[in-house]
Every structure is written in C-alpha cells, then in structure tokens.
Amino acid sequence: MLEQPQVPTPGARLSREEVESLLFHPDAEITASLARAARQIRDRIYGRGVFIRGLIEFTSFCKNNCLYCGLRRSNALAERYRLSPEEILECCEDGYRVGMRTFVLQGGEDAYFTRKRMTDLLQEIKARYPDCAITLSIGERSSEEYQAFFDAGAERYLLRHETATNAHYRFLHPPEMHLSNRMRCLKELRRIGYQVGCGMMVGSPGQMPEMLARDVEFLRAFMPEMVGLGPFIPHRQTPFAQEKAGSVETTLRLLSLVRLMLPSVLLPATTALSTLDGEGRIRGLDAGANVVMLNLSPQSVRKKYSLYDGKADCPDDARTIWREFSATLEQNGYRAVVSRGDPAGKEEIE
C-alpha cells in the first residue's frame, strides 16, 4: 500500500516526487485534504471574495499551429472573426456597468492587431475606465511591443508556458515554436513590470506525471502573480481529436497545491474546468481559486472562439451573467468583488 502523502504547509518547497504523490495518489481523501488547507490560506489572505474578470475574446485568427488548439492556422473549418475597437469598447462598457473592474483581452496571435492598433485601443480603454485593470493574453510578442502595451495601460499579461519540459513542448507545438522563446517572453514581461500569469493544461497529450511535477517546480521558482490552469479538452478539428480529456480531480488537486505553494497567487477557476464538470467553477473555488472570468464577448462570436470542444458558456447579456453568477456565489458562501482584484501585498500574507 502506498504511504499517504502529507498536505504541505503554505509556501513549502516540495520535491518532484512529493508533488507527483500528492497529485496522483489513489486516495480520494487527498483531494479534500488539499482543498481544506488551500481554502484556509486563501481565506486568510483574500477572504471569501471572488474577483470577477470581464473576458473579451476579440480575435480568433492565429498565426500559430499548436496541435491542441481549435484556432490553429491549419484548421480550415474554424470560423474567423475580429472585433472592431468600437465592439471591444462596447464590451468594456457592458462589463463596467455591472461592476467588472478588470478586462481581459484574449485572442490568437493575430498580426492584424499591430503595435499601433493595440496601443490605440489600450489608451482608449484606460481613458474611459481609469479605475480598471487591463490584462492581455495575446501570446508571444517582441520586447518592444510588450513595453508599448505596458506604457499604453496594460498592467497584466497571461502567457501560459504550457509545459516546462522541452520535449513535451515540441510534441505539443509546431517546429517553429520553442520553449526557450516562451520563457524569454515571460522574463521580459516580468522585467517590464507586468503582473505576470503563466500556467499549463492538466492531462495534455504526452504529459507524464513527472512533467506536471516539473511544471509545479517552475511555478515555484518563477513566482507568477497569476496561474491559469485547467484540464486538457480535445478539439475535433485538431491532430489530438481522439485524445482523452484531462482529469477534473487532478486539476482540483493542482489548484490546491498551487495555492499552498504560492499563497498570494491570483488563481482562476477556469472555463475548461466547468466544461468537464457543471459545478467546476464552484469546485475550483472550493479548491482554493479566487478568480472567475465571465465572457463579455458579443453573443454572435462566442461559439467561434473554439479552443476546444463543448466549451461551457452563457448566452446571456452581461447584467444577467453577473446577477446569476453572483447568486450562485452567495449560495455557496462566496461573494462577487467589485474591484480590480490585485494580488495581495506581502504585508497581507504575513
């Protein structure tokens, strides 16, 4: 019989073997024990408030050909679109009106959105909503572009590293993409002054337990302000169409473990988690997450932003989404927070 691993103390440094044991031990009680410990540290730092981000998926064009993504350039069946600046600003207005104070602009790596187009857009958003934070999630760019976006008002940047194992990165991506460049981008974002987010998929094709443990080791060393992680879900129009989805339980354990290792991290309960489990967002919060992204994109394009099959979404308007999700939070002992939702300062952790 395998020895049951011990739940780590907040901020602990674990070996890869210890991480593997916590994530993959067959005892179901491990999930509950990790979640209890993660909730305690999250509640001590952040309370029961949940930061709500307004997600705007503004382009489904992408120059990359990642093997797991439905937006990959080789997918001739993908429905492509770009939101205009006016449409993006309308999304911001909808979110601001109901209480959202962070806008997440997410899209494929679309060359149409040049440095000038992006900086003009960012400056206009900041001019209209100076009390709001802007998060970008638009992939690998040059250092000069990152600096220009920061100077124009973007303060946060989400760039999943996807895997810290070079051979696994090559397996998931086309030959022209390199883990070394992904890491360069993350370091540049940190140098410039962004609040930086990285993360990975759980159960992605070719992923071995030791690879996921190495990802946790990377997170512990890099100390991102945000970590985005969720289960892998296949897309029918990609080379990985027949692969199995990642484990919900392993994802929940990993959320808890990340909270314990990085106590002040901003940790979303992701859409992918709620796609595989109808209660996924609440289960993610119960595992230690404290952020939820609600979709502000126009209803006409939501299904077109198809990263994976069966994406969970709400067809309603921003006001209805906010009202209904706020009620769900309250029923489960949480509350929606109307604020930018910055990471806790050091003084709040000690």
UniProtKB/TrEMBL annotation:
Cofactor note: Binds 1 [4Fe-4S] cluster. The cluster is coordinated with 3 cysteines and an exchangeable S-adenosyl-L-methionine.
Name assigned to this protein: [FeFe] hydrogenase H-cluster radical SAM maturase HydE
CDD domains referenced in this protein's UniProt entry, alphabetically: Radical_SAM (cd01335)
Source lineage: Bacteria, Bacillati, Bacillota, Clostridia, Candidatus Pullichristensenella
Annotated ranges, domain Radical SAM core: 44-270
Binding residues annotated for [4Fe-4S] cluster, in chain numbering: 62, 66, 69
Source organism (scientific name): Candidatus Pullichristensenella excrementigallinarum
Keywords: 4Fe-4S, Iron, Iron-sulfur, Metal-binding, S-adenosyl-L-methionine
MF terms (GO), sorted A to Z: 4 iron, 4 sulfur cluster binding; metal ion binding; transferase activity
Keyword S-adenosyl-L-methionine: yes
Record: residues binding (3R)-3-methyl-D-ornithine: 137
Biological processes per GO annotation: sulfur compound biosynthetic process; water-soluble vitamin biosynthetic process
Keyword 4Fe-4S tagged: yes
Binding locations of S-adenosyl-L-methionine: 162, 182
Gene from which this protein is expressed: hydE
Named cofactor requirement(s): [4Fe-4S] cluster; [2Fe-2S] cluster
